[in-house]
Amino acid sequence: MLLYILGMIGIAAFAITGVISSGKRDMDLFSIVLLGMVTSLGGGTIRDVILRVDAVYWVQDTSYLWVAFLSSVFAFFGVRVIENRQQVFHYADSFGLALFTVVATERVLSLGFSPMIAITMGVITGVAGGMIRDLLSFRPPLVLGKEFYATPAFLGALLVVLLERNVPFHEYNSIYGALLIFILRLFAIHKGLYYPSWLLYKKRENHDY
Questions:
Q1: Model confidence over 64-76: pLDDT tens digits?
Q2: Do the record's keywords include Transmembrane helix (predicted)?
């Protein structure tokens, strides 16, 4: 039940980021709501397609679809009264990243896949929705920047796997993993937590690729 609730909250959070990211594009209501829904449902859809589950999660349970739709509509009208939309965007994105990553990791483990697959699919699920959102709204994808983004997702998924192996089925394992991801993202946003320069790929000055 806890994972179900966390998944719903994650969908709502990512839907809000999709709507905010389209705010300067002069898009109509239908297009913005569609972007919010694609953002919130995209990562989990990719996960289920790759793992070839019987039915994609929002097809099997349309409650996810309704939450994505209603959250997008609410955000369309609600963000207009918010002054610092960029801050809300980053908080909601970090929250959605954390929740989607841990929920996906737990789900893949419950399906009987190996910890490595669970971690991989957790990270993919967490970052894929944001990548789709950024590409469709012509924003530089956050995951491709030098700021900590995919790494917190990886560490959170790893923590969930380790907890499940040592303290199996503890009800707060997912929350611990989500908190780790969210806190690391907050440090990245407010404290400038970046990858060290030696881990970054530098483009050559002579543009010789």
A1: 999 999 999 998 8
A2: yes
Please report which residue ranges of 23-83 form alpha helices under DSSP H.
29-51, 57-60, 63-78
- DSSP tally for the chain: helices H, then strands E: 8, 0
The one-letter code for the residue type at 53 is V
Count Cβ atoms below 10 Å from residue 205 Cβ, excluding itself: 6
The CA-atom distances, in angstroms, between 70 and each of 13, 33, 64, 86 are: 12, 9, 10, 21
Distances in Å between the alpha carbon of 146 and those of 32, 89, 136, 192, 200? 28, 18, 21, 10, 7
* Tens digit of each residue's pLDDT (9 = 90 or more) over 79-130: 777 777 888 898 999 999 999 999 999 999 999 999 999 999 999 999 999 8
The domain locations on the chain are 2-199
List 147's β-bridge partners, or say none.
194
- Please give the backbone phi and psi of residue 140, each rounded to the nearest 5 degrees, phi first: -65, 125
Q: DSSP alpha helices (H): ranges in 79-113?
A: 85-110
Please give the Cα distance from 85 to 82 (Å, whole number): 6
Q: How far apart are CA 40 and CA 38, in angstroms?
A: 6
What gap in Å lies between CA 85 and CA 101, rounded to an integer?
Answer: 24
As given in the structure block, the two tokens for residue 74 are 């609410």
pTM: predicted TM-score of the whole model, two decimal places: 0.87
The CA-atom distances, in angstroms, between 140 and each of 76, 83, 148 are: 22, 22, 14
